[in-house]
Amino acid sequence: MTDPWHQPLRHVRAGALSVDTGQTGGMSRREAVSARTVGSQRLWMGQTHVAPHTHSGDHHHGDSETSIYVAVGHPVFVFARDGEEVRLETSPGDYVFVPPFVPHREENPTGEEAVVVIARSSQDAIVVNLPGLTPVEPPAGD
Known about the structure:
This protein is mainly β.
């Protein structure tokens, strides 16, 4: 048994991320750090890719807090506050915090793929897909 001071670091190469994780229509999640991949006990980390002119379905991440770093593109994060739709328009370098159980979706209104890095306070990729919004690709030129 290895003591806590002498456990090995784990290296997950960019090309080794797995799509074998919780998914939502309209986006692709890629798992990097999790209980399954590296044996983490309190953290999940990966990427989400949203194709140009696409949006995800509505979803939430259970009791997990989610932190998002925008790496590429200008994704829009949509949620409701006091019965009104709120749209957070982001740029590379921005961060977004998603509290537990908050329904939301990601939209990519641009012609460039959007890529975000995600960290969650759980070693599992908790994804609860909600009925309602169906991911679609808007007509060309939108």
